[in-house]
Amino acid sequence: MTQPINLGIIGAGLAVKQLHWPALKRLRDRYTFSAVADIDPEKADAITRLVGANKTFTDYRELLALPEVEAVLISLPIHLTAHIAIEAARSGKHVILEKPLAANLEQARLTRDELARYPVKVLVAENMRYRDDLIAARRLIDEGAIGDLILVRMQSLSHVDASDPESFASTPWRQDIQYRGGALLDGGVHHAAAMRGIAGEVEWVQAFTKYGGHDQLTGPTTLSMNLRFRSGAIGAYLFSSTCHNEDAGFLMLTIHGTAGTIEIRDTTSRLLRPGQPPETIVDNAEGGYYGEFLNFYAAIREDQPIVSTVEQGYRDMELILRAIDSAEQATVLLL
Ligand SMILES: NC(=O)c1ccc[n+]([C@@H]2O[C@H](COP(=O)([O-])OP(=O)(O)OC[C@H]3O[C@@H](n4cnc5c(N)ncnc54)[C@H](O)[C@@H]3O)[C@@H](O)[C@H]2O)c1
User: Fold this and answer.
1) What stretches of the chain adopt beta strand conformation (E)?
2) Considering the entire predicted model, what is its pTM?
């Protein structure tokens, strides 16, 4: 018999509506909802109704004071995540917080160390760690299906639409940024997680960045990064929120090994080996949101290990923000 967790929601914006709720509503035996907090009362009301909660707050501290709330989902503008996550942990709530966990690397380091002091479970909601296609690709690599890793290529090039109110780029905090790295940090941590999940820890990084090219987005919008993994494999990563591009998927990853290649094109992945027909690995891959809430539940109720730990979230941030350092210093950096 599952014992549901009462999950409070802090920040009732697009990610909750478009990504978290579709996953959470499939987990009704594991999660219940009584309270939602958002400084915007209309947004708080809308999500309160959507999830069937009965308490709505504009001050998240009132939600944290509720004894029946056992855990919180934090889905706030990036610059607010760290200190509210710490307050939640200090209040004795288990925390699932959206990526990236902080507004810069120093704050991420302090947040990681502070969160470790509280006897609660903390999971960074990095969906890439729960995607079935990336998990399957990693398993195939471990089984030797493509031989030794040579090169990992990742690309995410698009001109994001900030005029549609349902688009993430339309949110004011993504346009007037109060965190380092702008769109590069926001999107890039996902790609960092995917590349690290496939090829392991990164040793060296070198990058160039470009600003501008978009009417609404400020900060660096485009990045070209070279990396070397500790395994000796190398990588190339291209990111842009401003390039008009026909091949504009968010997860376009090609993994080359000595005996074959794995190709991921958003939700479809294939194994390509010389002399053999292409094999579909996963069709219609899951976004990973269901998996992250399942893992959070199992961590709390069954003491299972957390896959997307705060340390992992920190290292994703480190790769992107050190790449920006490399561009600013025009140098190759050892992580
Ligand atoms: N995992 C993913 O694929 C994914 C995708 C999109 C966004 N995200 C992450 O989700 C988070 C939220 O992004 P979003 O696109 O939903 O943004 P959003 O702006 O739509 O939602 C944030 C909400 O927080 C509210 N808010 C602001 N200050 C607050 C405060 N002090 N107290 C309570 N509420 C407050 C805003 O009113 C807004 O409703 C970010 O961390 C983002 O990086 C993750």
Assistant:
1) 5-10, 31-32, 35-37, 55-57, 71-74, 94-98, 122-125, 149-157, 202-211, 220-229, 234-240, 252-257, 260-265, 268-272, 279-282, 333-334
2) 0.97
Atom 4 (ligand 1) nearest CA: 15
pLDDT tens track, the chain, 335 positions: 789 999 999 999 999 999 999 999 999 999 999 999 999 999 999 999 999 999 999 999 999 999 999 999 999 999 999 999 999 999 999 999 999 999 999 999 999 999 999 999 999 999 999 999 999 999 999 999 999 999 999 999 999 888 899 999 999 999 999 999 999 999 999 999 999 999 999 999 999 999 988 888 888 999 999 999 999 999 999 999 999 988 889 999 999 999 999 999 999 999 999 999 999 999 999 999 999 999 999 999 999 999 999 999 999 999 999 999 999 999 999 99
Sorted by where each starts, the structural domains of the chain and their CATH numbers stand as 5-126+289-308 (3.40.50.720), 129-287+318-334 (3.30.360.10)
Residue closest by Cα to atom 5 of ligand 1: 15
**Contact residues of ligand 1, CB 6 A cut-off:** 10-15, 19, 37-40, 43, 60, 75-78, 80-81, 98-99, 125, 127, 168, 171, 186
Which tokens is 66 given?
Answer: 């509720």
Q: What's the gap in Å between 103 CA and the centre of ligand 1?
A: 13
